[in-house]
Amino acid sequence: MLINLTVVNGQSGLPADVLPDSLSRLPLVKRADLDENGKRVYDKVGGANRTTPLIGPAGISLYSPKAAEPIHELNQYLRTSVIGSRYFELCALVAAREFDQQYEWTGHETAALRAGVEPSLIDVIKYNKDVTGLAEKDSTVIRVGRALFRDHKVSPALFAKTVELFGRQGALEISAIMGDYAMAAVILTMADQHLPADRKPLLPAR
Q: What pLDDT was estimated at residue 5?
């Protein structure tokens, strides 16, 4: 979940309860203020010898180091999912769109392009377009996400198709990735995380 962004201090137009250094409602977690276990987790999550502020879901999670570590480990594992990096990013985008989470979407749209997700496919998620005509695997992932987040259930037929295309482990990990990024979206929204001023927001309002 770690997105390395340069913080631009003095950003104008922030809500009154959002701090200019963290760009969220929570002050930056400083490594020096943590106990020994907290310092270890900080280095694991943010990288040893880090010199730039740690913002976003990773930085926010450090308010609970014992939660931050397994969250980080889960995310790192899911990035090696059997479904591959392209579908990993597709799942992350589906979750970010369903929660209208600007910070999360903006980081992962760029990552999705690097992973080979076509701009036209990104637009299907971004603008809530119909999935008719998409490749079967692409449409299935999007349909699963929409079913989970909107209907709170997955039909037997959609589940069977997901297993047919991705296997049982792949089907489980699709839902796990979406759940992981749903959690990140909730954390980011709770803290009202904003983008640095030098990053263009890429997610339009519905």
A: 39
